[in-house]
Specification:
The chain is mainly alpha-helical. It has 2 domains: 2-82, Orthogonal Bundle (Arc Repressor Mutant, subunit A), CATH 1.10.10; 87-222, GntR ligand-binding domain-like (Four Helix Bundle (Hemerythrin (Met), subunit A)), CATH 1.20.120. Helix content is 73%, strand content 3%. It has helices at residues 2-15, 20-33, 45-52, 56-68, 87-111, 114-128, 133-149, 154-166, 168-174, 178-196, 200-222, and strands spanning 72-75, 79-82. Helix 5 packs parallel to helix 10, helix 5 packs antiparallel against helix 11 (200-222) and helix 10 (178-196) runs antiparallel to helix 11 (200-222). The radius of gyration is 18 Å and the shape is globular.
Amino acid sequence: MGDYTDALRRRVAERQATSLPQLIVEELENMIINGVLKGGDRINESALAMRLGVSRGPVREACRQLERSRLAEFRANRGMFVREISVEQAAQLYDIRASLFGLAGRLAAERAGQGDVAELLEVVERLRGCADMDHYYPLNVDLHRRIVALSGNPRLVELYDDISKELHLFRRHGLEPAAARELSNAQHREIIERISAGDAATAGRLMEEHILAGKGRMLGGGAAVPHKE
């Protein structure tokens, strides 16, 4: 933890004058992705500022950015908290995310080169070697982002990322069982094979089904976390 904190503080120092709040946003998002912060957790601005070696001002601005992106919410007289969503809201977001991911797959199949495919398959192999959820989930998020980026559509990337961030809690729970991770990664490989073949229609369909499978795990109890707004 000490080495990580030292490296993080170096990054803070490098970006102190330009984009410090954005760096803090990225760190908070990573804490959510890695399960350090969960839905309903209070964001301790003082502790985070002390950890980063900065004043509370940039941390407060970063929290406001998270609030605007619907990842955090301010509760009067209590502070800033990681936002919670209901299962019904999560199901609606899964449907939107599935459509966006399917579109990204069709576009990626038309644009991806063999070098891109090789990089994706390398991530799939790394996922296969992950022993637990803490290692698997952040890498899984990275793989999805890489595939969507191959669409060549920056606005699509932005929309997909925004929707996905709201679902981190549910996505983690849906992939907790080792069998679910194995099946999910097998689907990754099949998707990448279709992208490599330039089969836009099948790649898009498989990618949409991949997200809807996650929705099914959630509704089936794999991610049954009772949250309310």
